[in-house]
Amino acid sequence: MTTADATHESREAGGRYSSVSIGLHWTIAVLLITQVILGLRFEDMPRGPAKGEAFALHMSLGITILLLSLGRLLWRLTHPAPPLPDHYKTWERLLARATPVGFYLVMIGMPLTGWIMTSAGPRPYPELWGVLPWPKLPVGEALAAPSSGFHHRGPWIFWTLLALHVAGALKHQLLDRDGTLWRMLPLVPRGAPR
């Protein structure tokens, strides 16, 4: 491949994300999907030891997602995303920039509101993964209701964002065939054919 071809390909695909960004993207995605499904299932469980264990797992996953998401945000602020491909239309650019903001609100907001809700309640915060004591936030019950509102609407916001994200990735892969999906796929070497 000539230098001119490589430059054209890089501009066309918009460049590839770093390995750290790709690893965090997919790790958080799997944890979020697991968390949302677990959260929706354990709400309907009858009180008892099984629900307590599901709640402890939910809380551990939530704090793990929060910490990974804060790490991902810090990484993103210090390692900007590759530029968007030149051929993106204005509406595609707007969605490509707005969707990650929405995901960050969910990835940080849902665990934070869950932590606030638990902190406002009478019970101690469960140990993370059964081994690490986790503090309660110094918040009163006044924050519990608005936190609960966002926390319980968050899964639907997440599923909407995920549907948009997947639809966009599939559009670029199957219709546009422009290599956008390649930018964030794990285990694909740089320069791999699209």
Structure write-up:
The protein is mainly alpha-helical. The protein has a single domain (17-184), classed as Fumarate Reductase Cytochrome B subunit. Helix content is 67%, strand content 0%. It contains five helices and no strands. The chain has helices spanning 3-13, 19-43, 49-78, 90-120, 144-176. Helix 2 packs antiparallel against helix 3 (49-78) and helix 4 (90-120) runs antiparallel to helix 5 (144-176). The protein is elongated and about 55 Å long.
CATH class: Mainly Alpha
Tally of helical runs: 5
Write down the CATH topology: Fumarate Reductase Cytochrome B subunit
First-residue to last-residue Cα separation: 15 Å
CATH architecture level-2 label: Up-down Bundle
Number of strands: 0
The portion of residues assigned to helices is: 55-70%
Gyration radius, to the nearest Å? 20 Å
What structural class results from the helix and strand content?
mainly alpha
What is the string of SSEs from the N terminus onward? HHHHH
- Beta-strand percent range: under 5%
Chain-averaged pLDDT: 84
Number of domains: 1
Largest sheet: none
Name the poorly predicted regions: 1-13
Shape: elongated
Supply the key terms:
single chain; 194 residues; mainly alpha; Fumarate Reductase Cytochrome B subunit; disordered N terminus
What is the topology?
Layout: H1 3-13, H2 19-43, H3 49-78, H4 90-120, H5 144-176
Quick structural gist:
The protein is mainly α. The chain has helices spanning 3-13, 19-43, 49-78, 90-120, 144-176.
